[in-house]
Amino acid sequence: MAVSAPQTLPAAVALVPLSSTLSAQQAPANPPSSRSEPATSPQTAGNTGSGEQAPPPPPQPAQTAPVNSAASVVTIIQQLDPRDINGGAPEEPDTQSPTQRQQQEREATPESARQPTSNPALLTATEREIVQELRARDATVRTEEESHQALAGANAGMISYSYTAGPDGRLYATGGKVSIRPIQGLDGVAAIANQAAISRAASVPGSSAADYNVAKGASMNISAMISAQAYAAAESYRMTLGLNAAPGTVDLSG
Fold first, then answer.
1. CA–CA separation, 6 and 82 (whole Å)
2. Residue 200, burial from CB neighbour count under 10 angstroms (0-12, 13-18, 19+)
3. Distance between CA atoms of 144 and 240, rounded to whole angstroms?
4. CB 111: neighbour CB atoms within 10 A?
5. For residues 82 and 65, what is the distance between their CA atoms, to the nearest angstrom?
6. Is the pLDDT score of 183 beyond 60?
7. What digits encode the pLDDT tens for the residues 33-85?
8. What does the alpha-carbon distance between residue 104 and residue 235 come to, in Å, rounded to a whole number?
9. What is the signed CA dihedral for 131, 136, 138, 143, rounded to 10 degrees?
10. Which residues lie closer than 8 Å to 180 by C-beta, 6 or more apart?
């Protein structure tokens, strides 16, 4: 929560002259004595030649401390802001929803320490992009492997997938393969057709290098089978004509 700096508020100032307080509080330094003394000693009285006594001297004025007319007593009363006093004002209410608070806590947690969550609202922007990429990869892998299996026909086995866990806690297929086992016991045209099916299954768009190697091997098998079939057909034709071996030279006359 952001804490605002205390505001400067007006203050009440009262000025009281210092001289008036000092004169009222300070007592006279030398109060006059109530006892009267003779003005002159007997010798002085004798010199005057008369029996009357001299009047007492006037009292000295009281000594007061020097007063600085510019000095004054300053009384300052400062008004306090209630927010500066502990418990003076209530705190601002938290308007965030529990989902927003959980999302902020998740963003503050390091990525390596985050736990998968099934709530899409708690995913960060980066995690949402990762989920979209995993979904696209999952769809591509499943389409490719299902195409391999369909084109291979009876030669195809089961599909096996490799999965990756996403930030949303779900598993997404990021790899896959189909086991191919050619049908045994075929010969002739059936064997060639079977190898052609394997070649087509391994040549679908998006196939890997291993798939292309399978397709290449099937094509070579087809070529070998065709050559073998052609040789067998030629041998069968010669045997039908009663020829044990093909002649080395042929003479043409007309």
1. 10
2. middle
3. 50
4. 11
5. 44
6. yes
7. 544 444 444 444 444 444 556 666 666 665 555 555 555 555 555 566 656 66
8. 82
9. 170
10. 152, 155, 156, 157, 198, 201, 202, 214
Tokens representing 94 are 């938290």
Report the first-to-last Cα separation within the chain, whole angstroms.
115
The model's pTM is: 0.51
> What single-letter DSSP state applies at residue 37?
-
The full 3-state SS of 222-240, as one line of letters, equals HHHHHHHHHHHHHHHHHHH
Q: Report the length, in residues, of the chain.
A: 254
- pLDDT for residue 24 is more than 70: no
Q: What single string gives the DSSP state of each residue in 94-117?
A: ----HHHHHHHHHHHS-GGGPPP-
Those residues with Cβ within 8 angstroms of residue 100's Cβ, 6 or more apart along the chain or in another chain:
none
| Backbone phi and psi for residue 78, each to the nearest 5 degrees, phi listed first | -100, 130
Residue that is written with structure tokens 């291979």 in the block:
152
Give CA–CA dist 46/245, Å, rounded: 197
38-45 long-range contacts, Cβ below 8 Å, gap at least 24? Answer: none
How far apart CA 139 and CA 82 sit, in angstroms, is 63
Distance CA 136, CA 174 (A): 9
Structure tokens, 220: 């070579």
Report the chain's C-alpha Rg in angstroms. 60
C-alpha to C-alpha distance for 90 and 87, rounded to whole angstroms: 7
